[in-house]
């Protein structure tokens, strides 16, 4: 174990040696086709041996963050929600071949055998399984210092909650998996979305006291208590617990020693932005984001994806975000725009952009919406107007609660485009999926509010019940 300890001294997961990460994690999780098919490890070195050392336990947790960055829901590549839900709603226009896997998302023609739908499900439940292995491992790790056991459990509880939350918003009722016991997972049943939210909240609240209030490194790639609190504010908003959404968001907003508002939009997506709450670092030093590689193109027509006309026409006159966060590409055949929040689509001498998952602007808009839903009109307008002023826009003219809520929905559309599917989730929360998407998406159906369950899962585990309506 001496060589392992020497390699894993640094807590920053970007600096952990990836092949050894894979080895460490493979001691207790196999890359399986389905979370129903997770087997015990074949290695003679059992999973519990990973938790005899802080460095190897850290490495196992680090692999989960790398997995989130590179696959499943939150990855910035073309398989992730930033791309696929952009196509699924009105953020992105698809220019690829009809055989490309994004075409079904653009056409709203998903089917239960869709490989990307199955991949997101399976990657997510593998990540959840890995979190459960961490939780179980550290709870039975007498050789680990108490502080490390608590911290790792808190991080794993946070990620487990986060992944389940996204799954419920995509698929509706889903299994909430809290064990690595194959006899349990193989026959897991789906629970209603409100129960998923309750379980998510329970996990997040359990994580809070286990984590530090400060970041373990300045790059903000390892979740701490503030990260959990930021995500908890979103969960409270989605759950309709508006007073708690306000309280949680205020913890972040009021912590001006840690989070300072960025008045220059060019700085928001840099790796050292003071509004960043949590982000993924690249796999290699000098690399930048998968998002930039996926979205940026240098000549028209776009090879695969561009920002949609519906999004580009939604910018108000004078909105600085249009010139800073989008880029025009023109030739004799037309004009197109690509997302330009992340501007480095090639390696640099040192990495300058990391993939941001949570940032301070969301906390202001969460609090604004929660205030509006509770009738605190002026407080809602104050938070909304900070976002607008930064974009070079005048204060909102909305006065009634309904008008302010509409203004917040519009602001979120512009503020969070191509960021992990906010647009889809917002329209669903507002009950506007059919109203807004049927106008611009010829293939849109009411039942598209949920993705199909992967058919392989239904065949493997009959306890999952019936397929989602419409599929």
Molecular structure report:
The protein has helices spanning about 1-5, 20-25, 55-70, 80-90, 105, 115-140, 145-170, 180-185, 195-205, 225-240, 240-255, 290-295, 310, 320-325, 360-375, 375-390, 400-415, 420-430, 435, 455-460, and strands at about 90-95, 275-280, 305, 325-330, 335-340, 355-360. The strands form 3 sheets. The protein has a two-stranded antiparallel ribbon with strand order 1-3. A two-stranded antiparallel ribbon has the order 2-6. The chain has a two-stranded antiparallel ribbon with strand order 4-5. The model is unreliable at about 1-45 (pLDDT under 50). It has about 475 residues and is mainly α. The radius of gyration is 22 Å and the shape is globular. α2 crosses α3 (about 55-70), α3 (about 55-70) runs antiparallel to α6 (about 115-140) and α15 (about 360-375) runs antiparallel to α17. The chain is built from 20 helices and 6 strands.
Key words describing this protein structure:
6 strands, 47% helix, 471 residues, 6% strand, single chain, two-stranded antiparallel sheet, two-stranded antiparallel ribbon, mainly alpha, globular
